[in-house]
C-alpha cells in the first residue's frame, strides 16, 4: 500500500511515500522543507502529569525508542535503565492501569531490552496489542511473505543496509550511511506497489509490514477496553510513526506530546528528550 504523497497533511502519518526526499536521516532532527504543514517543534511543556490526572483520568501511551530510551547507533545498542520495567509498573499503578507502551519493535524484542513488562503494550507498529497480563487485544498480526522477506534481505546485502529481521516485518537501517536513504525509499516504493505491503519511515530506517495496523489503531483498540474507556488519551512520541498515535489521541479528546527536535503536526506539547520524558513522568 502506498499512502498519499507527502504534502497531504490529512493523509500523512506513518506511511510513506510520494516525494523522495534526499536529506540524511530525514526524520532524525528535522523534517524536509517540502512539508510546509509541519509546525516547528517549539512547543510548550505539558502541565504536570498528576495535575492533569486530577482534572481528568489520563490514559498514557508511550513510544519506546527516542521517547523512553535515547536513540543509539544500532537497534541492540540502546541503553535501558535496568529497572525500567519496575518503574513503568509503578506508573501503571499511579494511573490505575491506564498505561500502554506502543512500539515499532516486536514485543519479544522490546522485552528483551526492558525485561518482562507488566503494563499494557503494543508491538510491531500497533499490530500486536496486549493487556497488562499479556492477553491479546484484537486480531493476530499478519506477517510478510517469505519471498518479500527474501527480496528485502537481498536488497540490504547488495546495497549496504543493515537488515533488522522482525517478528512481523523487516527493517532497512541506514544510520551508518544516511546517503542510502533515497535508494532505500525507491526500492521500498517499488516493492510496496508490487507486493501490496506497507512501508513506514522512521529515524534512519525504512520498515516493511503486511498489517494495516498502526499506532492510531493501537490507541483506539486500548481506548475501547473497559479499563481505558472514558479517559483522556495522551500519546508521547518522537518519530513519524508516532504522529498516528497523537492524531488518534487528538480525535479521542486528548493530545500528543512530541519528544525532541522533530517538528510535529499533531502534538500540543513538547519535551526535549527521553530524559525530560522520564522527569515529566516522575519515573
Ligand atoms: O516505535 P519505536 O518504539 O520508537 O520503535 C521504532 C523503531 O526503533 C528502532 O529503530 C530506531 O532506534 C534504533 C536504536 O536507537 C536506531 O539505531 C534506529 O536508527 C532507529 O530507527 C528499532 O530498531 C525498530 O525496529 C523500531 O521499529
Automatic annotation (TrEMBL):
EC number(s) on file: 3.1.3.12
Entries under Pfam families matching the protein: Trehalose_PPase
Enzyme class: hydrolase
GO molecular function terms noted in the UniProt entry: trehalose-phosphatase activity
Catalytic activity of the protein: alpha,alpha-trehalose 6-phosphate + H2O = alpha,alpha-trehalose + phosphate
InterPro entries xrefs: HAD-like_sf, HAD_sf, OTSB-like, Trehalose_PPase
Transmembrane segments: none
Cofactor(s) needed for function: Mg(2+)
Pathway given in the UniProt record: Glycan biosynthesis; trehalose biosynthesis
UniProtKB keywords: Hydrolase, Magnesium, Metal-binding
Family: Belongs to the trehalose phosphatase family.
Function in brief: Removes the phosphate from trehalose 6-phosphate to produce free trehalose.
Protein name in the entry: Trehalose 6-phosphate phosphatase
Organism for this UniProt entry: Aurantiacibacter sediminis
Lineage, broadest ranks: Bacteria, Pseudomonadati, Pseudomonadota, Alphaproteobacteria, Sphingomonadales
Amino acid at each position: 500500500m502506498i499512502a498519499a504523497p507527502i504534502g497531504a497533511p490529512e493523509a500523512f502519518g506513518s506511511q510513506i511515500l510520494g516525494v523522495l526526499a534526499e536529506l540524511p536521516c530525514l526524520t532524525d532532527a528535522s523534517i524536509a522543507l517540502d512539508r510546509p504543514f509541519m509546525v516547528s517543534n517549539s512547543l510548550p511543556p505539558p502541565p504536570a502529569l498528576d495535575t492533569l490526572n486530577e482534572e481528568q483520568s489520563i490514559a498514557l501511551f508511550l513510544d519506546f525508542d527516542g521517547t523512553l530510551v535515547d536513540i543509539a547507533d544500532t537497534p541492540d545498542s540502546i541503553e535501558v535503565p535496568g529497572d525500567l520495567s519496575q518503574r513503568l509498573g509503578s506508573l501503571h499503578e499511579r494511573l490505575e492501569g491506564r498505561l500502554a507502551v506502543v512500539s515499532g519493535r516486536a514485543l519479544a524484542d522490546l522485552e528483551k531490552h526492558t525485561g518482562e513488562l507488566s503494563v499494557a503494550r503494543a508491538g510491531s507498529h500497533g499490530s500486536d496489542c496486549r493487556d497488562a497480563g499479556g492477553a491479546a487485544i484484537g486480531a493476530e498480526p499478519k506477517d510478510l511473505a517469505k519471498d518479500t522477506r527474501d527480496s528485502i534481505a537481498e536488497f540490504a546485502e547488495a546495497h549496504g543496509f543493515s537488515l533488522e529481521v522482525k517478528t512481523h516485518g523487516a527493517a532497512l537501517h541506514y544510520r551508518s550511511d544516511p546517503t542510502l536513504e533515497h535508494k532505500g525509499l525507491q526500492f521500498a516504493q517499488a516493492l510496496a506497489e508490487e507486493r501490496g505491503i506497507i512501508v513506514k519511515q522512521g529515524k534512519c530506517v525504512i520498515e516493511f509490514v503486511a498489517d494495516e495496523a498502526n499506532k492510531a489503531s493501537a490507541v483506539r483498540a486500548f481506548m475501547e477496553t473497559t479499563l481505558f474507556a472514558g479517559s483522556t488519551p495522551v500519546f508521547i512520541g518522537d518519530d513519524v510513526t508516532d504522529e498516528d498515535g497523537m492524531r488518534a489521541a487528538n480525535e479521542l479528546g486528548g493530545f500528543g506530546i512530541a519528544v525532541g527536535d522533530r517538528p510535529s503536526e499533531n502534538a500540543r506539547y513538547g519535551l526535549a528528550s527521553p530524559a525530560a520524558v522520564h522527569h515529566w513522568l516522575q519515573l
